[in-house]
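As described in the Methods, two query proteins were run sequentially through the folding procedure within a single session, without resetting any intermediate state between them. The first query and its resulting structure tokens are shown here.
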Amino acid sequence: MLLRLEIRDFAVISNVVFEPSYGLNCISGETGAGKSLIVDAISLILGAKASKTLVRSNSPSCYVEACFDMTDLKNRDELTAMLESQGITSEEDMLMISRQIYVNGKSIARINGISVTLQLLKDVASFLVDIHGQHDTQRIFDEKSHCYYLDSYGGEKITKLHNKYTELLEEYKQIVLRIKGISSSPDFLDRRREYLEFVVKEIGDAAFKDGEEEELIETRKKLQQNESTASVLSEVLSVLEGGDGSEGSTSQGAASDTAFAARELARVASSDASYKSLSARANAIALDLEALASDLAGLLDEMNYDPELRAKTEERIGLLYDLKGKYGKDIAEINEFYERSAKELSEIDANKDLLSELKSKRVEVEKKLLACAEELSSARKAAGKKLSASIVRELADLEMPNAVFEVDFVRREKTKFFSSSGIDDIAFRFSANPGQEARALSAIVSGGEASRIMLAIKNVLSMSDNTPTLIFDEIDTGVSGKASAAIAKKLKSIAEGHQVLCVTHTAQIAAAADCNFMLSKHVVSGNTVTECNLLDTDARVNEVSRLLSGGSGESSVKLAKELIQSFL
């Protein structure tokens, strides 16, 4: 359940801390005080679309933070597993969710301090809170949502049947698509076989093995290093020997020139002893250069550089990259593609009449699909009768004693038989008065009636609902008097098994609350400030009195006390 909600710089709210309890929590206040902003803030926490218009004037951003206690959450293990898969842990079963929206429209969402996507936020929200806002009341007018409400009421049995139906429907669609593909092109199998034969031959001839790519890259690296080294040694040898170092070259190199210089100095030194030292040095250099050239030539002869191997390696790498572009990101995926292609080729060769087999398979799957669809339809019809009876009882409690509520099933046309939801179009039908035929909700339901029908549905569904916190934003729209009191009792009933938050402008609902909060706004130093205060006993009486009569006169206060007492 929700333990604490902090809101900062959000629309007209500067800084508000809201700490609801278990049971029925009612939020009231003057028009424009920002009551529904509490619900809007929780919606942001649960992944609703952010808007820069939510940021309070002259503030760089707005911030919303909520703390949830997961101790009694029925699906706690499932939620914990979801969070842990994203690297999020919860200490003492506490979950901190925050959302910050900046004036440029960007937002950051965090769960227990870790940034998360809005999709994860929405997934987490489905475990924690169910918000019923004013737009949700309008949702019951949309017949597309009626199947969802019925399935929610039907529970696990219908969920399993629908999942089975969905799996069979997908299998059926795939078979139909394959049949259509083959039938639309008579030479499909021949072209498919030709393609598969090409694939099997191309990948098979290449015969790449796992790990070979790494070996090829390492070999190329070594060959490139050897080639670079050989190039340097050859250039040095050419400098020493002249020309390109090959036999028969007439170019003179440094070694020959130095040897010539040593011989000339030796000839001079033979006639003039003062040059003997220079002659000896020149002779030593000449011998060193000759030895260096000889060593370099020996290294070049011994070096493991094979231009042919380099060419084959590059060709092999190029072939691998070509196959990766066609069949997979690595050798493992390429070989998997080969296996699948070889298997399909074998199946084509072994089953000449594939089209006939697919048609037989379609008939088989269609029978299963139809049987499952009929079973799902029967389960829904049984659930529909129970749902109708339950909602009629709820509506009687909500001052609609003569209401008729039906779940209508219309078998779909054969051309549109199998939809994603089943073989029936499902719609709720309603009549508020005796003698009137039950008709579509959108045709006859008023705002007040829609609110009560929605509350009746929510109450029936809440009996099997695992969501711990339910939020109702002005569920009392369009109702007053006895109907308001009936709605208050119904909310009180729901709150026996859930934490309920309700934004209200009705005295009866405020009187039924276990905890009352009041939002008020006033001006401080030229700025509008909104406060959210938990009301004590006297303040609660005064607020119920205000909602009753607009003031706190003696008679109004007395009536407020009596109204509060009636719900105890």
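Immediately afterward, the second query was submitted; its sequence and tokens are:
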Amino acid sequence: MSELSTSAATDGIAIVGISGRFPGAKNVDEFWDNLKAGVESISFFSDEELAASGVDAELLNSPNYVKAAAILEGIELFDASFFGFSPKEAEMTDPQHRIFLECAWESLESAGYDPERYSGVIGVYAGAGINPYVFQSINTQSLGIQNLIGGDKDFLTTRVSYKLNLKGPSVVVQTACSTSLVAVQLACESLLNYQCDMALAGGVSITYTQKTGYLYQEGGIMSPDGHCRAFDAKAGGTVVGDAVGIVVLKRLEDALADGDCIHAVIKGSAINNDGASKIGYTAPSVDGQAEVIAMAQAVAGVDPETITYIEAHGTGTPLGDPIEITALTEVFRANTPKKNFCAIGSLKTNVGHLNAAAGIAGLIKTVLMLKHRTLPPSLNFEQPNPQIDFANSPFYVNTTLTEWKVSDSPRRAGVSSFGIGGTNAHVVIDEAPAVESPGRSRPWQLLTLSAKTSTALETATANLTHHLKKSRQDAIPTANLNLADVAYTLQVGRRAFDYRRMVVCDNLDNAIIALEKSNSAHPLPVAEKPKDVSVTFMFPGQGSQYVNMGLELYKVEPTFREQVDSCSEFLKPHIGLDLRDVLYPSSLPYTF
């Protein structure tokens, strides 16, 4: 299969925003740092910790009880007042819903959009894991409709739509382990069908009791020792993990036209089900997986030989891994005999199986790889599963941090997620297209920040300072930070709250210095604007200072220059001279 000649450069779905929280990482940046460093974010618990979490003593003494999990820190935290929750309402709401709502807000900020200002329609597609929070944390005798709304999966996306005033399709997706990648695929279809102009897609899975292990059963999907060894001869299963992840999607042509920061492009996606052609309801199927991968590649219109990385479902089970590689090999071999050109990895070796959030976490990992042009290591691989013939396949397990090199085609990857019950999803994604550098901008930029409280404003200032420092130290080759873009996003892509701060700067270093100095001041809330107040420019000092400052404004601010020109032309026949000859004689003939 060759690249389809009919595919335009603007075909596809752009990923313009990302947010998430993962085991060992409270945000996407920390997640990427862990991936690069090959960190296995699995926690192992003492008997005392497990007992304090309510684990039965009989389980603790069982030789088959594995005292490990990939936990998410801070699930008890929630900014209730920010979203207008009463303390009681917040208490009744499942932590999955609370954290997903926070990440939905963060994802839109990552994309640079305030939904109150955005003129298009925004949809939400997502799913959550099972969580008996509402029954375990609240007296079951007093359960009412508010308790059920706060804890039922059905209300995950509509709560986001209500709280953020999003008016596009709001759909909960439930397909077990493949939930969140299926949500991404459905969101892509919604965008392509013009049911919405932007979509949030993702998933969340958080267990009620964090510090708990699991009972190992031979032949099951859980690891006997708390480590996931995908594709390895010693593979025995995976580990339970918690996470949340969301991507913000737009049609690529719209994202390019709007000047969005594009992290990667979904070129094609597909979903299907295994049906009954397998040994059991929970078993995977070669045919089902191969069909969904082939469909996604056909939709994308790409040659499999141009795909140089696969983020596998990779549960690390003796049965599942060989089936997955067999299905992938079948699809690739239909188009190329080439061997060992495509790296393969599994996020589950880092953070365990994230249930309903597994697919979106794998997608976010792959987007970060494309963005940074780097292949992080897949962990715990020494010798291949004897049922997998990697030597004669298109694949190899990537076990070291490696630069992602390509020749003729863009960096391109596939991401798989397969659910118990047989619903399979696969997406093909490309690195972001090259865009022209922004044109000349004004030499001085105004960075604006706002928050609902003074302490939140201090945190926002510190976060922006950290972001600017990190971008200076670890610039992404495909997206060097532009101060004018930062200023624009802060002004039009953020909600304006009562506590505000602004700094004026002309370069990145000065921006950092100004922000650090400003964070020592104690801001006051913005007073209500009086009625019938006009804006006046005031230039204190001698007349020469006025002229010099006016000249600078005239040179660099088109709106100011336009108004001065208009006034000068209007007054010329009345006063017999051009005001610009008086105000800015050194600027003749008024071209900049």
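The chain is about 35% helix and 15% strand. We note this only descriptively and draw no conclusion about the first query from it.
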